[in-house]
């Protein structure tokens, strides 16, 4: 948040300044791509025994004057000005390189923007990165939000089919926040849903959210889909989710997004665990 404040100052005083701020930001982002200012943080996804199943790659920008900038503050702009294509390719390359070097074969989850899905060369780009890094395709999970499926159904179907043929896994991110989700589940062969954080947050206080999560889990069972709960912050949420049959968890309770040099340490301390073994101490927050 401290870093964000300087950022918003750019936009504070009126439209002209705002436009200028955006131009500067766009210029800076272009520069960032060429000068190694982007980094990835990795957040663990675990099973109910806290065994690590995957890490999600989350991009950050180490801005020379603003400090660490979060994706909400530059991904939308990157999408508007087309920079999301080279940025997304950088993320894919960096994430697969990292995962290929880990001491354990956990998966790597990478977020894709709609503009990336709509590029017909995306499957080739990803195939080349997999070959170059040596990462087996089934260790790559591609996280997609449902917006792109609604607006550009035919193009999206074609790309997703090709990605599936490559052997990568397809994940529907932020599930439950968009529209007509159920029909998409049938139409596109997803491997997994990620229940949006907003439902998890209201889980303990709101029986409606709990009912929705239970319905999502029942649905995914019958469609043979895996389910991850995102944004798990408390022991109580973890327990309630486990009681509804959720088997995969991600959130600050399990681990915050961490720089790459902490991943190996996290892997060493967290596994291997056999099922039924007591859970390890939660990492200090
Ligand atoms: P997402 O894919 O839904 O990622 C989860 C976000 O929730 C991350 O925010 C993560 O840090 C945050 N989070 C995880 N656990 C908790 C928790 O327990 N509590 C709370 N309050 N938050 C939690 P982050 O890193 O700021 O990323 C935000 C969004 O930016 C991501 O949402 C994703 O849509 C997008 N994004 C991040 N990296 C990339 C990228 O490389 N490419 C694209 N296209 N989008 C990205
Ligand atoms: Mg995601
Ligand atoms: Mg998500
Ligand atoms: Mg989310």
Automatic annotation (TrEMBL):
Residues 22-271 form the EAL domain. Signal peptide: none annotated. This is EAL domain-containing protein. The chain holds residues 519 to 803 of 810 of the full protein.
